[in-house]
Amino acid sequence: MIKLIRGFRDILPGQVELWQDIESKARVLLENFGFREIRLPIMESTELFARGIGADTDIVEKEMYTFPDSKGRGQTLRPEATASVVRSYIEHGYAGSDPVQKFYTIGPMFRHERPQKGRYRQFYQINAEMFGVASPLADVQIMYLLHLFFTGLDVPDVVTHVNSLGCPECRPKFREALISFVSDKMDRLCSDCQRRAEANPLRVIDCKVPGCKEAVQGAPSIQDHLCPDCKEHFQAVIEGLDDLNVPYEIDPRLVRGLDYYTRTTFEVQTTLLGAQNAVAGGGRYDGLVKVLGGKETPAIGFAVGFDRLAALLGAEEKDFTVPPALFIAALGEDARKIAFGWLCDFNARGLRAEMDYEGKSLKSQMKQANRFNAGRVLILGENELQNGMAVLRNMNTKEQEEVALDGLTDRVAALINQG
RNA sequence: GUGGGUGUAGCUCAGUUGGUCAGAGCGCCUGGUUGUGGCCCAGGAGGUCGUGGGUUCAAAUCCCAUCACUCACCCCA
To answer: For L-histidine, which residues are the binding ones (predicted)?
Structure first.
C-alpha cells in the first residue's frame, strides 16, 4: 500500500466541513476589514526566504524543502507566507500607486521538521499583511481583528501575548545587555542554554529548567531597553487594545524565530495542544520590504495556524458532516428510474438528496438512509406507482404522508424547506 | 537532527514463558419482517500480525534492520 509521506496528512470529509467554516468566516472578517485576497505560488526562489526570514534562522538553516530547477537554481516550497506577500507587493509596484495595502492569503506552508502533535510538514495558514502604515493603529487593528476572529469561532483557552522587540536602534543594545548578563552565569545554566547563550540569549530567559530559571532571575527586560520611539509605539498599542477591550498579556519573554520582526510582536497561545502552544502569531516587520529590494515601508501581519485552530475546535474528535435532507428509496426498476430523475432534480435545485443506486431491499435502503442521518425518506415502489402517491417519511417523528407523483419534486422541496 | 512509547480486521484493542493465537467489541453484509431505519437475535464477509532479513522442527511472540505513527527536546503556525 502506498502511504502518505511523513508529516503530511489528508483532511477528510467530516473534518473538512469545519475547515470550510473556519475559512469562510476568516474571509468575511478579513474582507470587512479591508483585506483583499492575494493568491501566491507555493514555490519561490530560495533566496527570497534566505534573505527575508534570515539566513541563520532554524527555518532557513534546516527546515526548507529546496530543490534545484533544471538549470540548477534553488527553489523552495514556502515555509511561510510573509516573504512571498512582500515579494509580490514589491514586484507589482504597489508602493508606487498606493503604498497602503492590506492582503490576506490562505494556503499550505512546508517545513521539514520532525512531526509531532500540532506540527506537520505541510500545514495551513491564514495570513494577513498590512503595508504602509507605521502608526500603532495598524498594530491595534490587526490584533483586534485576530481577537474578533478567535472569539467569533469560540476558540477555547487562548491568551494573546504581546511584546515589543524594539528596532535596529534599541534591540542590539538589549541583546548585548542580555548576553553580558547571561555570560557570567554560564556555569549555572543547562547544557542547552550554554550552547544558545550567544546565538539566542532570549531563549535562555525562557528556559524551563529550574536551575536556569533561578539563574536568570533579574535578567534585563526588553521593556526597559526600548528607545523612546519604540516605547511610545508600544504604549500606544497597549492603550489601543485597552480602548477596544482586547484582552492581552504583556510578555517580555515572547520571542519570535524570524529575523524580520521589529517592535510589536504577538502570539495567541493555548495549553491544549501540547508543546505546540502557538495558534497564531505575528508582528511588525518594518524593515522587510527594504531588505527584499523595495522602498522602506512599514508593515505588520499575522499568521493563524489552521491545523492547530481546527484541532482546538475538535476537528479530530467530532464529525462535521452535514446530513442530506432527503433519501429516496426506490423498489423495482421502473421506480428506480423515476427516483433517479427526482434525485437529479433535487440536486439541481440545491437540495441535498441521496438514493441507493444498486436496487437493494427496502430494509437495506432504510438502513442506509439512517446511516446518512437523512431527515426524510421518500419511498417509491409498485404500490405507489399504481395509486400515484409516493410516501414521504419523517425519520425523526416516524410520521408518513402521501405525496402525489405529479409535480412531486416541487411539493417535496417545499415541504423540506419549511423544515 | 536527538530521545521515549507504539505498529495485530475498516475502527478500538486482547493475544500470558515461542507450539489450535489468527481473536473480541464496534462497524459492514444477509436473514429474523415476500415493502420501512435506530433496539434485540442468528449467520456471514474481512487480516501478507507495518516491511525486510535472521534464529528455530516451529515466530504475532525472540534478534537485527527499516518504515510509519506518537510524545518530548529544538523551533514555531
So the answer is: 80-82, 111, 125, 129, 256, 260-261
